[in-house]
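Q: Give me a protein?
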Amino acid sequence: MSNTISSQFPLCRHPSGGDVTQLEGYDEFIQDAMASWHCPGVAVAVIKGDEILHQNAYGFLDVEEQLPVTVQTRFAMASVTKSFTAMSVALLVDDGKLEWDKPVKKYMPEFILDDPYVTQHVTLRDMLSHRTGMPRHDLSAWRLDLSRAEFVRRMRHLKFSATFREKFQYNNLMYCAAAYLVEKIAEQRWEDFVQERIFSPLGMDATNFEPEFPQAALMNAKGYRTDHDEEGRVRGLIHMPFGRHTEVSPGASGALFSTLADLTHWLKAHVNAGQSGDVRLISANNLKQMHLPQTIIPGGGLHESLHGTTIATYGMGWFIQPYRGHTLIQHGGNVEGHSLIIGFIPQEKIGVIALTNIAGMPLRDVLLYEGMDRALNLPDRNWNTRYHKVWDPLIAARAKAKNTSAAERLEEAVATHSLETYAGTYEADGYPGFTVRFEDGALSAWTVGSLAPSSLRHYHYNIFEWHLADFDFWMKIHFMINDNGEINAVSIPIEPTVENVLFTRKAVELSAHDIAALVGEYEPPVEGLTITINAREGKVYYVQAGDVPKWITPYKVTEDVIGFRMERTRLEFVRENGTITHLISKSPFSTLESPRKKSK
């Protein structure tokens, strides 16, 4: 069955909860907006204090099977997770075990960053408000299966793109580091701490940090994205399966799964000064710390066009903005066919939850602002029309960008080497290894232990395009050639705000059989000169008569040659029918052929 699904499907309303007068017509608005953005399913709630004003579900969690969304349908919450991570820190501040403004180095000495000053002074407030100076570096962690402790150790290699506290730079990795600190202080897994201190007290029984259900009767909404033609017109929907969830990524920055019903309990705690029903989750003071502006976000652009203001800020785990005479606190998330948002106005105790299973579309924002306006009884601002006016040209522009890239390709600019020559593993500090594989006449590439293999196609010269399937994006990468004409590195714009990261080719690992085959003496055509190859503990050593042994590292292994590098010299051991017959030494000044000395 094709992953592309017809976008023509009926919309269904699945009510649970009552409307109030000012929310009359909200159901119809939601269904019309869903159709205009080609969204399969939606779940929406509006609350005031402890009262649910509106709680309905619409459409399908599974288009193929026509399964309806309900208030108990689980959605991948993506970056909404950050508000829970910030809350886990706040709970330990409430306990007197952490301080917002104490250098993190005091709690975890192993937390070392590329900037020594930041290492000594960065605080939890800095980390949770995205003002450390470190950019995203998302592909250093994406789906990477290693412990938080090991990833925190690797963070010292990631480059900064701004000075400390200079500006807002959204950063998922700092939330992973904050979760690691919670683990150290609480002496338990972060996930278990959140379950014990947040989910259980609030009765969020359908919520966890992985696609697997905590209860058998639950169902996850399938995620979808729209498939566009070259003009940006929607051709259908494409299912986006969940990727592997790991401790590091999405982890504390985006691994949450929850339901509309569960999230209403969470939202009540935020609009009621830290209390949900009879449960006091957090002190009002530490709740407010998360809700206060900490970092200015540069205004203008789409935000100004849509809202008529240039003011936007970030607290800790929440965005904060002026909204029609009120203060709106909100956080959204996008991951694998899900886009959602939670927002509230604390002074009015009004909150909105909008969950959708369509990727990268602003329907969630449309439903948030429309719900807010109706709950506050504000004049209609035609939010769906406003967003279409801004977004429709952007969608068309994205579609045309692919055509632009294809048109700029130099068709006659062939690669300098045969495709199989590019295969190998390349390494860079702080990032998982980048592996290129040649199979069935084509290349594929992936980050080891992270992304799955995906297409690597030639663009022009030594520029290739790597398909990041998880993001529906083609990234241009540049293979580098050394003085000997060999592919020895690849330059990847893996973090767009810093210089390309250079991944150097990993040394080839030899089998025990290959190493044994090399050991012996070789006789150059120079009287008195003998070359001996020894091996010890899996390493190969080159010994020239009268000199000390030198460790040599392999760089290629084929059926015909085992190649090594030694300073500015290449050593090529030639084999015929599986037997090493002679050594060719290639330096800038000479090329010597040394037959293998026959054993007596």
User: Anything to note?
Assistant: The chain has three domains: 4-399, 419-505, 512-595. Residues 1-10 have pLDDT under 50 and may be disordered.
